Amino acid sequence: MPSLKSLNARQKRLFLKAVEPPLALAHLASRLLTLDLLRDHSLPEPGPIRILIVRLDTIGDVLLSEPAIAALRDRYPQARIDLVASRWGHELLAGNPAVDGFVEYEGPWHAAWRGRKVRWGQELRRMLAVLQRLRRTRYDLAVELRGDFRDIVFLALTKAKAKVGNSHRGGGFLLHYDARADLTCHRVDFALAIARVAGAAMPARPPRLYLTEGERRRAEDLLPPDKEYIAVHLGAGFPSKRLPISTFAAVGRRLCEKETHRRLVIVGGTEDRDLADEFAKLSGLPVVDLAGRVSLRETAAVLERCRLFIGNDSAPMHLAAAVGTPVVAVFGPSEPANYRPYGVPHRIVETSLPCRPCDHVHCIQSDYLCMTGISADEIVGAAEELLALAGAMAGRPSGSTQ
Predict the structure, then answer these.
(1) Is the pTM of this model over 0.90?
(2) Domain limits of the chain?
(3) How confident is the model at residue 394 (pLDDT cuts 50, 70, 90)?
(4) CATH fold of 40-197, please?
(5) 207: Cβ contacts below 8 Å, ≥ 6 apart
(6) C-alpha 252: how far from chain center
(7) CA 275, CA 278: separation in Å to the nearest integer?
(8) CA 40/CA 120 separation, integer angstroms
């Protein structure tokens, strides 16, 4: 019997459909025994209420939820709004006026799916401690923005008065208000649809980062204004989303060998260090290598100074879009309609294969053809097109540093 980790998205949905009815009956029995059905679970009116937002997954997903969080602040300007997210999510949204407080917690089920080793006993104790803290706050409203059965279970255990989410992956019986958002829409719009069920009415907008002057000065020190900088991110959340480094190296050579005014900037975390070293060896180009050497927010400030970003579907791709930098995004197993760069000029480079999108961590065909089948020519063509567009919008040809 295959493990849950090896199942694709469709198989997981079928599994949840099978287990959800008995769980729903057990939950109904619990509500009857505790008289919860008799309690008022209506949405609160604007005022000095307490709101909890749950976003337990990746950096990029937290960022794509920022417009929904802002929309909830717009609806409830006097509320105290707390966000439960990973430490990276907290760092990312530091200084955001929509969030008053942070509770650090990342769903271990998401980490396990990405291949990280999880100590489940330790994680269970940690989760119970976090839930105890959240229950003491007695939230008037709790909103889960991913639409994930496991995250909805976490939401339900907070004992918030009114619980809002999206049950497309199951868990609707645990919610008081179910958004049932369109699964084909972008994840920014998906989260906004949930926020609207919670009373928000703000129109859609791209995610925002609130960078400090100190972070921008640090980026300026790293990237003096004498070059045209092109940011490159070589990594991704899991192997099936990574373009071969040899292809990235070929792209870099094509873009920079004869254009001496251009300089590549390698961004990413400490997990991308080996990839950066391999790129330097294969490309032979002088680069500004910042992978694992600056903070997440400093990375965003660096991306803000770049003329273009090239990379896989990943958090840095969404960071680049959030600071207004045009993006060439390479997509493999994930669906561009859900995760494309939002609100900036961009080009999607992808292959047309019957097995995509699949959302598998490892390729079930074993050849990663959706990534290995992408050529350097396709990426360079998209990059040059966006560089020309950026130059025209700035009123100067691509490559001018004046």
Answers:
(1) no
(2) 40-197, 213-393
(3) low
(4) Rossmann fold (3.40.50)
(5) 63, 64, 66, 67, 188, 318, 321, 322, 342, 343
(6) 26
(7) 5
(8) 35
